[in-house]
């Protein structure tokens, strides 16, 4: 038996816990994410739900948090002073607001003063905190039944008992159906949430959107909302909403497995005048996504079904992410980029698969760059590419010319079962200069490296033309068999005439074999402060 050689951490990609959150770099078991019984879902819904539940924010309070501080140690003999009662009401309210709702409510039994403190403290209400503990946070029930009803009833009682405000509310354990009783519960919840000033709301139905059960229109009455996560719902019919409804304070919005029409999506964006972060995960309708917002800074679309994605006028947009979206088979999908003067990060585009339109110009093979066909603000660009499909490789230079100031280029080299033949070496030798590669490219990351000649030809082109290149990183899958071929490719690259001086080549191996060289973290993607959402560094 061969001894398995463990690679040192510095040769693994990406670094462990790189983004510091619960994402698909270190995937938790499905039952920890959504609690549904294995085998009850198809592969795509299962993947979408894993993303949705992994993306749900961690509540700011926990039922299993340790209570440990220096002041809590055993008092000295004879020391019976009541120091807690000496604290001001403001400090006591802050203490209660950091307790789970059921523990905070218990403090009201201490005295009339504590009753007043509890009633005036901003509350965190999480329905999962009403689940029986199993050594950790309660596991969500796998099906509708007595447990889910008990949790729903406890949540309803807590919501009604506290006068508000609610700083954070999370409801992810309910199995609501298209029945009159459940519709009444929904209406009552949103009436209470609106009147009691909810600031952040997580609201996910289980297990999947129920036909005939829409979110109530009272959702739009929650004017105090600043952050909103919705999952597995049918969106309200916006044509029946009163004129002027809006979310005047909403800054972050996440939609997971939401059934909605194009007009509803456009209505929602228009109703959020200060929205800065938008995440759409696992959309269930083929749509024409249309982005028009004067406040939006970041938008990500993961596993969505698009016929067309159009960025109309988003003067503040800095980041646009598209990951594993399913495009309609009827015609080539289109990504249209309009007024985006601040767009800094863009990906993943798919040359030869998507039609790229900038302004009113469709980018074709051989399109000459001009102010009307370029987005000069983009500094970080990510692409998906099949190097064994001729049309995709032929479109690559034209796509790159659209982003003349790109400094970081990330390419995922995808395998194909039906190659159409690689272009010969003359293609890259005869390719006209590409501004971003010649003058601005500092880092190239090629993931899912297959060791194909077509990949090597492109890498040689970059090495021989990128004058300011600082690093070229190739990421291979675990267990890649063709070691001799890869070694030969590396040697050829090392011996190239690097325009930037010495060889900048570095090879890494993917940390997780199930993901290979592809990874996306929606939590990191939705964080405007996270500097490397494509995991290049």
From TrEMBL:
Pfam families, sorted: FBD, LRR_At5g56370
Name assigned to this protein: FBD domain-containing protein
InterPro entries in alphabetical order: F-box-like_dom_sf, F-box_dom-containing, FBD, LRR_FXL15/At3g58940/PEG3-like
Organism lineage: Eukaryota, Viridiplantae, Streptophyta, Embryophyta, Tracheophyta
Sequence ranges assigned to domain FBD in this UniProt record: 435-508
């Amino acid at each position: 038996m061969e001894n398995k050689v463990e690679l040192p951490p510095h040769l693994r990609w990406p670094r462990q816990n790189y983004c510091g959150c619960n994402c698909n770099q270190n995937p938790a078991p499905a039952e920890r994410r959504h609690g549904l019984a294995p085998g009850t879902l198809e592969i795509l819904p299962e993947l979408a739900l894993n993303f949705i539940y992994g993306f749900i924010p961690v509540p700011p309070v926990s039922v299993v948090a340790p209570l440990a501080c220096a002041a809590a140690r055993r008092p000295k003999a004879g020391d019976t002073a009541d120091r807690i009662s000496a604290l001001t009401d403001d400090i006591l309210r802050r203490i209660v607001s950091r307790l789970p709702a059921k523990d905070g409510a218990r403090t009201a039994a201490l005295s009339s003063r504590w009753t007043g403190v509890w009633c005036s403290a901003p509350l965190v209400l999480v329905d999962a905190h009403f689940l029986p503990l199993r050594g950790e946070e309660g596991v969500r029930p796998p099906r509708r039944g007595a447990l889910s009803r008990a949790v729903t009833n406890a949540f309803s009682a807590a919501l009604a008992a506290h006068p508000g405000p609610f700083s954070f509310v999370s409801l992810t354990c309910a199995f609501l159906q298209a029945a009159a009783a459940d519709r009444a519960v929904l209406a009552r919840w949103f009436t209470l949430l609106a009147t009691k000033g909810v600031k952040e709301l997580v609201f996910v139905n289980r297990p999947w959107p129920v036909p005939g059960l829409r979110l109530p229109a009272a959702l739009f009455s929650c004017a105090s909302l600043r952050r909103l996560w919705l999952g597995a719902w049918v969106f309200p019919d916006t044509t029946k909403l009163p004129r002027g409804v809006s979310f005047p304070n909403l800054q972050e919005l996440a939609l997971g497995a939401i059934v909605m029409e194009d007009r509803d999506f456009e209505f929602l964006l228009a109703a959020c005048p200060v929205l800065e972060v938008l995440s759409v995960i696992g959309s269930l309708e083929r749509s024409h996504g249309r982005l028009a917002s004067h406040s939006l800074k970041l938008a990500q679309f993961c596993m969505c079904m698009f016929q067309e994605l159009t960025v109309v006028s988003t003067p503040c947009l800095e980041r646009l992410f598209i990951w594993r979206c399913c495009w309609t088979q009827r015609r080539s999908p289109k990504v249209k980029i309009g007024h985006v003067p601040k767009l800094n990060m863009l990906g993943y585009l798919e040359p030869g698969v998507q039609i790229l339109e900038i302004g009113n110009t469709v980018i074709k093979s051989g399109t000459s760059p001009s102010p009307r066909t370029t987005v000069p603000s983009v500094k970080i660009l990510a692409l998906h590419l099949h190097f064994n499909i001729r049309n995709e490789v032929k479109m690559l230079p034209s796509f790159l010319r659209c982003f003349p100031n790109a400094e970081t280029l990330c390419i995922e080299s995808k395998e194909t079962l039906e190659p159409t033949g690689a272009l010969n070496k003359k293609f890259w030798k005869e390719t006209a200069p590409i501004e971003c590669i010649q003058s601005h490219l500092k880092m190239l990351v090629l993931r899912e490296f297959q060791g194909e000649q077509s990949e090597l030809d492109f890498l040689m082109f970059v090495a021989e033309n990128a004058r300011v290149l600082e690093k070229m990183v190739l990421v291979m899958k675990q267990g890649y068999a063709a070691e001799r071929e890869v070694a030969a490719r590396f040697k050829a690259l090392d011996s190239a005439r690097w325009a930037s001086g010495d060889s900048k080549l570095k090879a890494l191996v993917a940390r997780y074999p199930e993901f290979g060289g592809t990874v996306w973290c929606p939590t990191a993607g939705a964080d405007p402060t996270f500097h490397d959402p494509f995991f290049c560094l």
